[in-house]
Amino acid sequence: MSERIVVVGFGPVAARLVDELVPAVRSGLVQLLVIGQEAEAAYNRVMVAEFGVGRTTAEALAIADAAELTANGVEVRLGVKVKRIDRARQQVVLSDGTSPGYDRLVFATGSRPVIPNLRGLNPDPSRPVLPVGVTALRDLRDASVLKEAVAGRKKVVVLGGGVLGLETALAAAEEGAQTTVVHNGPFPLGRNIDRGGGAVLSSSLRAGGVRVAGNARSIGIETAGPDGSFSALLLDDGSAIDGDLLVLSCGVRPRIELAEGCGLPTATGILVDHHLRTYHEPHMFAIGDCAEVRCADTDCLECRNATGPSGLVGPGWRQAEWLAEYLTLLADGGQEAADSLAPLPAEKPGIVVLKARGINLAVAGDNSAEPWDEELLNSGSANGRPRRHVSQWADPEHGRYVKMTTRGGVLEGLVTVGMPRTAAELVLLFERGAELPADRSLLLRLDGPDQLEGAGGANSDPNRTVCRCAGVSGTVIEDAVLDGCSTVPDVSKATRAGTGCGGCHSDIKDIIEKHFQAAPAA
Amino acid sequence: MPTGADTHCPYCALQCAMSLTPAAKPGSDPVPEAPVLEVSGREFPTNRGGLCRKGWTSASLLNHTGRVTEPMLKGSDGVHRPIGWDEALSLVTAAVRDIRKQYGPDAVGVFGGGGLTNEKAYQLGKFARLALGTSRIDYNGRFCMSSAAAAGNRAFGVDRGLPFPVQDLDSASVILLLGSNVAETMPPFVQHLQGARDAGGLIVVDPRRSATAAFTGDGGGIHLQPMPGTDLVLLLGLSHVVVHEGLADKEYLENRTSGYPALVRSLASFWPERVQSITGVPAGLIRETARRLAQGARKGGSYILSGRGVEQHVDGTDTATAAINLSLLLGLPGSARSGYGTLTGQGNGQGGREHGQKSDQLPGYRKITDPAARQHVAKVWGVEESLIPGPGLPAVQFLKSLGQPDGVRCLFVHGANVVVSAPDSGAVLEGLRSLDFLVVCDFFMSETALEADLILPVMQWAEEEGTLTNLEGRVLRRRRALSPPPGVRSELWLMARLAEALEAPGTFSDDPETVFEELRLASEGGLADYSGIDYAMLDRGEEAYWPYPRGSRGTPRLFADGFAHPDGRAVLVPVSPSKRASRNFTDDSLALATGRLLEHYQSGAQTRRVAELLSSQPEARLQLHPAAAASRGIADGDFVEVSNERGRVVCRAELSNAVRPDTVFLPFHFPGLENANRLTEAATDPISGMPEFKTSRVWVRRPASPLDAASVPADAETLLQIEEAS
């Protein structure tokens, strides 16, 4: 008997789960039904902003193909909504009038954009009706609205200084739209970044052609555009920011109503244990944006400090891969076999790497401490645990900033702006939990020109190897020249220098010329 | 007496042309070991007269005092003593008969090498299958070209390292070198990178700032330094940019490939910033690299060349496939000014993988499981098709089977030094010692020969005739420049005599040209078709690139009209990183990459016996970043212990900021306690059988006691070599 698995939702995380389950479907272990509300199979939502500014195509965003999955035996239903879940009968009630049954059900319902409380916007989160010229940025339809505005060189106002908002604003500005980012707090990315990084980021955004309106509290929208479309964002100080399109980028909220509707415990997201199982229903699971890993064990340190769904796709993919393995083991060898699988390891705090061409920025962990801030540096350093240290380098003139917060030499937080190689290395070190070199400046120099010396270099040491292929030093060549060699072939014949790749011929020539220039004067 | 000859270098696959001339008579002060031949570079399109240090000094091995010149039998005291050839041959015959009778034909195995001539490689495959009746034959090319070969076959339907002549690279404006350090491994090749360097378009992917990577400085191009083991993700990121930025060659994809939509879907989740956080390569450099490649493809020419650095992994085939996919997205393979290729390593690494030395293969790059191929070869060999055994085991599994129940109990080794070159060498050594009978054909007491029950002395390159196929798929003549020492025999002779004694079906000639004539017939109609090539045309200097069917002019450039799949299209195969590849080293372990030095070749069995080379690189040194060294209290030149669950290496540390702080580099040319392969894992690629050579997890520390360090110079083998070489 093969198990019937139903996946509710067909975004990138569900697609990974389905992909990983295909072998079990092909071998007949599992019958798989995946239900997507959108008309398209899964696509890479992370890149909708890129699509929205015309940098990529919908075709290139696809990560699943319904026809291919169907050929592999997976049942795919697109454009179908799950109305409710009948736990007693183990059925999903669908908008197409059918009610397929399940043995196991996986929620991969993702999240939806937060619609802020603004005058002129309908605050009902489940069915927002937005005025013309106002859009969130979640799916391909939203992106098409943005695309039209960017292509038409319209004025775009982005509300929200989070990652997606900044990425959208930068990309739109780079593609020619007049763009303003509106955020509250003194600098953008306020939830992740520190003051120094935020200041450098703001000026980098401005240098990238984005207008930045900080410390702004928006209260409503004005719809005085053609056909009552958006015309300005109104702030609490009485001012207004004009625009043709308002992009709402105020975060996302997990879609949990189906789980709530069938009585499953939820918090911010659908509550699941370390096996991604919902409370009380071990045959129901949740992964990705809609899932909140928080086990019932009050002693679990990991869950005590958990902060809810990360909203990042990486953890969702890891959950999908793990769950596919778990479900395959369940179908194949029952609970005992599945229990042999080690639980999913805890996620590291999320790392933000801004997807942008003009600005290089990476932020991770806790960046609240400042180098001289004794209280914050000492926090958490009881019982022999070392205190935190902060190393910092700021060069706002050139848009560069680095801050490394370490404990026992291991990163607890990092901020880099304008330092691509440093950013790449620090992110790796953060992920590995590896100790930083004692000389932190090593990490700053990665982006310096001295790290990129060529093969030749300006090395005047006569003992250095001039010809690597034949292993001949400058001294040996000088001796040969003293012995009468006056051309490169002469030197090659006498020393074998220059007989391999020939790359040192100009160096040999220099040595010969130097000798004969010096000779008459002697 | 030496007569001299125009031939090619004994070492790598570039096969530099060289002339050997009798050395001038020693003057008043005769030196007994002065080389009998003088080496000089010869004008040829690949090396343009250039040679590296290894080539220049190659003749010094011909009359080396350490040369084995008589069959040597190991006594019960473990000492090898000379015996006559008749006795040697009857010992081998008896051992084969005995073991075959007791355990069946698959208890006898043959391990070959990518340095053997085409004639020897071909005849070795035939000898194994007909004279020994065994399926157990494979070779050290499994450690070298197997991943690239598997990927090439999968995508293009054929595997020829470079499907174009080397000099095509001269005009390229962009060359992407993936895990290849040509400045050390084949220095004269560097001439062909000059055009790209002048155009600022040399892009090198290497976790180390290798000598080749350093060429990208001073405006020569870009160096991408990914974490070891993340090459596949980097390549997916490059392809992602090509697709999403509209840089792909749509018309080419439409007309010449299949599988594009599925490939695009597989790339969607590898956007540059995500790839950066896995590989450590900045997103901006990923975008720039993709754009440069696309620019080059439109104007000037772009080439993608892969090397062992990206291929010698458990996901080597998929990584090579990712490189091929990138090249196909850009429309490079088979176009006039661009291309994709892999740089073959061993001297006859190309020819050696075409004519039946591989466990799953028959001559002409035929599959041993293909009934038509078996019929064809059986006919050429004059035997019943049923006499040809089925597929055997690839090298790593083969070596694991040594001495095991149902495994190999009697082994022939030809042109390989597995004690040094195979992964997890400690286990290999145990395997060899558990054999009933080990025969090693070599010209020196290599570390593997030392383990042999019987060592059979064979000819060196300057003493034999034959052909090799270089990295471009061009067949070259190797010519005899002097007579071998009296007690030395050719391997063709040896196989012929043993076949006779074992009453093998078919014929076995000891004449290279006769064997080549048979190889021509056996390869005819196969992918690697040599039927139109003969010695006379090679001796006239004609270019012979396979496939060279009878009556044709050969194929300098493959894929101009189509790929070797039935529909003429190249196949885009979606690949993704395995979960194993994404493991993170979270403690103080380091990633070990193994590799080469300019001065040495392969296991060093030859080059460690050349005084000039040994004095320049006398020992293995562990390259270690100063930051990694400082936190471990290690100074430059200190002895360090490098260890993991498989073994331990003790060697000197060389502090260098050419390696990443999380990575160490150890050359693999050295034996004993310095043998890098004590640490490598015998885990293999599921498709190619390639072992994991480039990403082992190791711990580096100062040796626990001074005694450990002191044991290094006392290593008997090292002392022996120093003595022999000086």
Supply the number of structural domains of chain A.
Answer: 4
Terminal Cα span of chain B: 25 Å
Helical coverage of chain A, percent range: 25-40%
Return the average pLDDT of chain A rounded to an integer: 90
Strand content of chain B: 15-25%
Spatial ordering of strands, largest sheet of chain B:
5-4-18-17-16-6-7
Question: Helices and strands of chain A: which structural class?
Answer: alpha/beta
CATH topology of the largest domain in chain A: FAD/NAD(P)-binding domain
Overall strand count of chain A: 27
Question: For the CA atoms, what is the radius of gyration of chain A?
Answer: 30 Å
User: Any low-confidence stretches of chain B, pLDDT <50, length ≥5?
Assistant: 709-726
Poorly predicted spans of chain A: 450-459
Class of the largest domain in chain A, according to the CATH hierarchy?
Alpha Beta
Structural class of chain B: alpha/beta
Largest sheet of chain B: 7 strands, mixed
Task: Give the rounded overall mean pLDDT of chain B.
Answer: 92
Give the assembly state of these chains.
heterodimer
How are strands sequenced across the largest beta sheet of chain A? 3-2-1-6-19-18
Shape of chain A: globular
Would you write up a description of this structure?
The complex is a heterodimer of chains A (522) and B (726). Chain A has 522 residues and is of the alpha/beta class. Helices cover 30% and strands 23% of the residues of chain A. A six-stranded mixed sheet of chain A has the order 3-2-1-6-19-18. Chain A is globular and about 100 Å long. Chain B is built from 25 helices and 29 strands. Chain B starts with a strand and ends with a helix. Mean pLDDT of chain B is 92; it is low at 709-726. Chains A and B meet through helix 3, helix 10 and helix 12 of A and helix 10, helix 11 and helix 12 of B.
